Amino acid sequence: MAQAVLGSSSLSLLHSKLSSTRTSYSASTIFGSQLKSGEIEKTHLRLLVSFRSNPALRMKALRESPELTQELTNNKPKSIEETQDGSDLFNEMKHRFLNFKKRKFLENSEHFQNLAKGQAPKFMVISCADSRVCPSNILGFQPGEAFVVRNVANLVPTYESGPSETNAALEFAVTSVEVENILVIGHSCCGGIRALMSMQDEVNTSSFISSWVLVGKNARLSTMAAASNLSLDQQCRHCEKESINRSLLNLLTYPWIQERVTKGVLSIHGGYYNFVDCTFEKWTLDYHQEGSSREENGKYKLKNREFWC
Ligand SMILES: [Zn+2]
Predict the structure, then answer these.
(1) What's the burial of 8, exposed, middle or buried (CB within 10 Å: 0-12/13-18/19+)?
(2) Which residue positions form the known binding site for Zn(2+)?
(3) Ligand 1 center to residue 257 CA distance, Å?
(4) Based on the structure, what is the number of domains in the chain?
(5) Cystine design at 124: which of 144, 179, 248, 300 (Cβ 3.0–4.6 Å)?
C-alpha cells in the first residue's frame, strides 16, 4: 500500500527495509523575521567573545570542535558571505558535506553500509517546518534513527481529511517501517499557530497557509474556550501545546495506528521545544484499551511528562 503512495524511484530507497530484516498570513509571519547575514555574523562574533571570556566554556568547545579550535587559533571567525549568485553559500555547504563524509560516514563505514541496505528507525517525528526547529540537531537523531516529516505548525490531519504528505509519510513509517514511536514536536513562537489564532471568521481561501492551519481548528476552539481572556501571545502559547495533543488524538483516527497502539507495539508522544530558553517538554498519550483517551469532560489523559532544562 505504501509502495503505491511513494512511487518507484524514491521508494527504492525508502522501502529497502521491506527487503531486509530489522537489523540495522505571509511566509515571513509564519517563519519569523529574517536575520540578515550581517546580523548572523554579529551573533557568531558574540558567541566567540563569550567563548574567549569563559575559559571553561572555551576548553569544552575546543575539545568538541576541531573547527572551532582552528577558528579561535586564527582569531578570526568563519562566516558565510553571500555573493550575488550565492556560490559562497554552496561552498560552505560543500565544506560541511565533505566534513560529514570524512568525520562520520567514512569513520563509521560499516554502520553506513548497513544503513544503505535498509532502515529501521524507532521514531517517526512530525515537527514544524520552521528553520529554528531542527529535530535531528536538537535531539541528536543520527541518520537512520528517525523518519521525519515537517509541515507548517506540526499538524496531523484526521484520517477522514484525505491524503496529504503528512499522512503519506505516516502510512509508510507505521505500516512498512513499523516505527515504535510517533513524536509530534511543537515549539515556542510558532508562526503557524499564530496564524491559526489570529484567523478571522472569514477564512482567506486563496491562502494555502490559512487552509492548512485550519487542520488545527479544534485546538483553536479549545484554546478560545480556556483562554479567551488572555492576550494573543498567551493564547498562542496555550494553542502551541493544545494543538500537539489534538494531533496525538488525530493520529488515533488512522485505523493502522489505533490498532498498533491498542496492541502496545506503538506509542504516541508529544514534545514542546522552547527555543527562547532552550527547554524541552515530553509526554505520552495515555491510551486505554476501550479505545478512548478522553475523560468524560472531553479532555485527554497524558502520562510520563518530563521537563528537560
Ligand atoms: Zn512552527
Answers:
(1) exposed
(2) 128, 130, 187, 190
(3) 24
(4) 1
(5) 179
Is residue 301 situated within a structural domain? Answer: yes
Which of 4, 29, 28, 3 lies closest to 17, judged by CA?
A: 3
**121 backbone dihedrals φ, ψ, rounded to 5°:** -65, 145
Phi, psi of 174 (to 5 degrees): -85, -45
How many angstroms separate the alpha carbon of residue 6 from the centre of ligand 1? 26
How is residue 113 written as a grid cell? 553500509
State the average pLDDT over residues 27-55: 41
Residues spanned by the domain of 309: 120-309
Going from the Cα of 155 to the center of ligand 1, the distance in angstroms, rounded, reads 10
201 pLDDT band (50/70/90 cuts)? confident
Residue 304 has pLDDT above 80, yes or no: yes
CATH number, domain with residue 132: 3.40.1050.10
Binding-site positions read 128, 130, 187, 190
140: left (phi over 0), alpha (psi -120 to 50) or beta: left
For the segment 212-219, the average pLDDT, to the nearest whole number, is 95
What pLDDT, on a 0 to 100 scale, did the predictor assign at position 265?
Answer: 97
46 within a domain of the structure (yes/no): no
Q: State the pTM of this model.
A: 0.74
Q: Per-residue pLDDT tens for 4-31?
A: 333 333 333 334 443 343 434 444 444 4
In a domain, 274, yes or no: yes
Distance 73 CA to ligand 1 centre (A): 38
241 has pLDDT over 70: yes
Q: Is there a domain that residue 37 lies in?
A: no
128 C-alpha vs ligand 1 centroid, how far in Å?
Answer: 5
Is 288 or 238 the better-scoring residue by pLDDT? 238
- Give 181 Cα–ligand 1 centroid separation in angstroms: 21
